[in-house]
């Protein structure tokens, strides 16, 4: 009898141990307004836990965490875990009116964040209106605890987050753009880890400083959280070795400069191999659109070597490409390659079941008496295959899961409805006006997809960083001009294409991606230039197995925000 009791007690303790091992780490995000001073003036901004940028999350590959989001702000909010696939669990993905309705002021939403194959750097950010200007932060995804990096372990790791700062409240900038129908006011500064840097007024004292020891190696986890712009980045007198992008390892690529798109992450190794001194790191815009205003300022931080010496004043600045140097941008992006070795294999789909070509365009609508601020008095818009996306009144995931009719359609064309010289300098005016709609694309579970994004010059040709939720994809090809369906696939890289979740489609060019539709759910796809997404350069994929989603998704959480 005593042995039986002892055995039962041992079983109970063993069970408790298992439950503790399976306990998920829990974090608290309090969204609230906080006063911050930048560029000589003070304003209230939306923050998480009072921090700008917000808190960094640290996880290991395959972890699941719970983030309790309390909205103490006066605005609605949603939080997206950028690049986190959330297998079979789109409920916590975050895009407003795609997978959830917003968390209302005074409400709480407990979001389960499920990491799977990601390893490297990702990030989180608000995903409604333009709150993400200040509501964002890094996610560091370490290898599994019994694994290591596929490169020598760095001596230290540092998140480097690029952002934009407006003197005006960001919601004023947003609403003014909606009212006038033109481009928004450009930012007043770019930032590195929340600070504009020495080249801006009232900023030198708080410039971010990276203190290094000569001979050591540093892993910089770089995130472009800027709202509108691709950025060039470099460190004076130092080279950068890229080892990962979008939480996936790459073959080492050493460059003096990188280009990083809004939404993208790039991990680089920095070797502190120069004479002890101070050196500027700097970022400034890459802007390819003709006639579109841009922020022409440069944000800086300082790499400071330890030791006793008299630093150069001011520190040397790195050489950055000219603001519209498309060649510099695409040559860097096109040089990325997956690591593709035995420890980190890739699986590029070869037999494609779904072929799509999506034109991505800036468009316009006419206004009464030409009264808007777009070209020729029009209202600016954007589209995918000539459909400008309109947010529904309830989220698409809920509508699909519960079979609520009339919320969205499934008639997004597989190919452009109008075939023309997409990148010509002069195009007919009747191509400028898109249709409005809430149209999505339905994919069969486990089907394979090749999607070609084709940029156009309809209103203004520019780069478009396209981001897909719920998936990473292989970038198998890219080019300038019009995609040639017969010739260009012959040059695809199917051996070691980079695995990304955000790809910058070059100005008046194209990019081809491939992925396997093996994650059921509703997944948003959009341009990560904020004004383009607001104007309608969005759609969504519904991935299903021929049966309702509610048979192969994990159950929704009990505290989903109401619509």
TrEMBL record:
<keyword id="KW-0439">Lignin degradation</keyword>
<keyword id="KW-0964">Secreted</keyword>
<keyword id="KW-0732">Signal</keyword>
<keyword id="KW-0677">Repeat</keyword>
<keyword id="KW-0052">Apoplast</keyword>
<dbReference type="Pfam" id="PF07732">
    <property type="entry name" value="Cu-oxidase_3"/>
</dbReference>
<dbReference type="Pfam" id="PF07731">
    <property type="entry name" value="Cu-oxidase_2"/>
</dbReference>
<dbReference type="InterPro" id="IPR001117">
    <property type="entry name" value="Cu-oxidase_2nd"/>
</dbReference>
<dbReference type="InterPro" id="IPR017761">
    <property type="entry name" value="Laccase"/>
</dbReference>
<feature type="signal peptide">
    <location>
        <begin position="1"/>
        <end position="25"/>
    </location>
</feature>
<dbReference type="InterPro" id="IPR011706">
    <property type="entry name" value="Cu-oxidase_C"/>
</dbReference>
<dbReference type="InterPro" id="IPR033138">
    <property type="entry name" value="Cu_oxidase_CS"/>
</dbReference>
<comment type="similarity">
    <text>Belongs to the multicopper oxidase family.</text>
</comment>
<dbReference type="InterPro" id="IPR008972">
    <property type="entry name" value="Cupredoxin"/>
</dbReference>
<feature type="domain" description="Plastocyanin-like">
    <location>
        <begin position="157"/>
        <end position="307"/>
    </location>
</feature>
<dbReference type="InterPro" id="IPR045087">
    <property type="entry name" value="Cu-oxidase_fam"/>
</dbReference>
<dbReference type="InterPro" id="IPR011707">
    <property type="entry name" value="Cu-oxidase-like_N"/>
</dbReference>
<protein>
    <recommendedName>
        <fullName>Laccase</fullName>
        <ecNumber>1.10.3.2</ecNumber>
    </recommendedName>
</protein>
<comment type="function">
    <text>Lignin degradation and detoxification of lignin-derived products.</text>
</comment>
<keyword id="KW-0560">Oxidoreductase</keyword>
<feature type="domain" description="Plastocyanin-like">
    <location>
        <begin position="430"/>
        <end position="545"/>
    </location>
</feature>
<keyword id="KW-0325">Glycoprotein</keyword>
<dbReference type="GO" id="GO:0046274">
    <property type="term" value="P:lignin catabolic process"/>
</dbReference>
<keyword id="KW-0479">Metal-binding</keyword>
<dbReference type="GO" id="GO:0048046">
    <property type="term" value="C:apoplast"/>
</dbReference>
<dbReference type="GO" id="GO:0052716">
    <property type="term" value="F:hydroquinone:oxygen oxidoreductase activity"/>
</dbReference>
<keyword id="KW-0186">Copper</keyword>
<dbReference type="InterPro" id="IPR002355">
    <property type="entry name" value="Cu_oxidase_Cu_BS"/>
</dbReference>
<dbReference type="InterPro" id="IPR034289">
    <property type="entry name" value="CuRO_3_LCC"/>
</dbReference>
<dbReference type="GO" id="GO:0046872">
    <property type="term" value="F:metal ion binding"/>
</dbReference>
<feature type="domain" description="Plastocyanin-like">
    <location>
        <begin position="31"/>
        <end position="145"/>
    </location>
</feature>
<dbReference type="InterPro" id="IPR034285">
    <property type="entry name" value="CuRO_2_LCC"/>
</dbReference>
<dbReference type="InterPro" id="IPR034288">
    <property type="entry name" value="CuRO_1_LCC"/>
</dbReference>
<dbReference type="Pfam" id="PF00394">
    <property type="entry name" value="Cu-oxidase"/>
</dbReference>
């Amino acid at each position: 009898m005593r042995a039986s009791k002892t055995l039962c007690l041992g079983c109970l303790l063993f069970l408790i141990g298992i439950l503790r091992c399976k306990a998920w780490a829990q974090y608290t995000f309090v969204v609230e307004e906080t006063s911050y001073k930048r560029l000589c003036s003070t304003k209230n901004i939306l923050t998480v836990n009072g921090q700008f940028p917000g808190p960094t999350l640290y996880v290991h590959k395959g972890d699941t965490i719970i983030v309790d989001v309390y909205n103490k702000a006066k605005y609605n909010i949603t939080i997206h875990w950028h690049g986190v696939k959330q297998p079979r669990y789109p409920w916590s993905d975050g895009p407003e009116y795609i997978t959830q309705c917003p968390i209302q002021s005074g409400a709480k939403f407990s979001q389960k964040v499920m990491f799977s194959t990601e390893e490297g750097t990702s990030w989180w950010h608000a995903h409604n209106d333009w709150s993400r200007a200040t509501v964002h932060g890094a996610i560091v995804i370490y290898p599994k605890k019994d694994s290591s990096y596929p490169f020598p372990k760095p001596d230290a790791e540092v998140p480097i987050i690029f952002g934009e700062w407006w003197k005006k409240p960001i919601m004023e900038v947003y609403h003014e753009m909606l009212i006038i129908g033109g481009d928004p006011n450009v930012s007043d500064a770019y930032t590195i880890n929340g600070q504009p840097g020495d080249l801006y007024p009232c900023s030198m004292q708080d410039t971010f400083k990276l203190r290094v020891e000569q001979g050591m190696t540093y892993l910089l986890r770089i995130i472009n959280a800027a709202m509108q712009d691709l950025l060039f980045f470099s460190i004076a007198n130092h080279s950068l070795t890229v080892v990962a992008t979008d939480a996936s390892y790459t073959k080492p690529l050493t460059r003096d400069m990188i280009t990083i798109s809004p939404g993208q992450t790039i991990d680089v190794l920095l070797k502190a191999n120069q004479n002890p001194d101070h050196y500027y790191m700097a970022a400034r815009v890459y802007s390819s659109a003709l006639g579109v205003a841009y922020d022409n300022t440069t944000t800086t931080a300082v790499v400071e070597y330890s030791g006793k010496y008299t630093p150069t004043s001011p520190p040397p600045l790195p050489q950055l490409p000219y603001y519209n140097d498309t060649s510099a941008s695409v040559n860097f992006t096109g040089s990325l390659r997956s690591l593709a070795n035995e420890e980190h294999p890739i699986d590029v789909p070869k037999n494609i079941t779904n072929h799509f070509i999506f034109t991505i365009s800036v468009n316009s609508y006419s206004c009464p008496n030409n009264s808007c601020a777009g070209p020729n008095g029009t209202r600016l818009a954007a589209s995918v295959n000539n459909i400008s996306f309109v947010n529904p009144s309830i989220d698409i995931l809920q509508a699909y899961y519960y079979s609520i009719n009339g919320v969205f359609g499934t008639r997004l064309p597989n190919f452009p409805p109008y075939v023309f010289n997409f990148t010509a300098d002069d195009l007919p005016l009747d191509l400028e006006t898109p249709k409005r709609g809430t149209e999505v694309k339905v994919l069969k579970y486990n089907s394979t997809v090749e999607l070609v994004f084709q940029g156009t010059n309809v209103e203004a040709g520019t780069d478009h960083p396209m981001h897909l939720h719920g998936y990473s994809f292989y970038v198998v090809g890219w080019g300038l001009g019009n995609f040639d369906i017969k010739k260009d696939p012959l040059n695809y890289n199917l051996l070691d294409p980079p695995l990304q979740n955000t790809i910058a489609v070059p100005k008046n060019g194209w990019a081809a991606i491939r992925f396997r539709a093996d994650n059921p759910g509703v997944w948003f796809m959009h341009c990560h230039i904020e004004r383009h997404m607001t104007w309608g350069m969005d759609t969504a994929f519904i991935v299903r197995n021929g049966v309702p989603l509610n048979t192969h998704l994990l159950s929704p959480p009990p505290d989903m925000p109401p619509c």
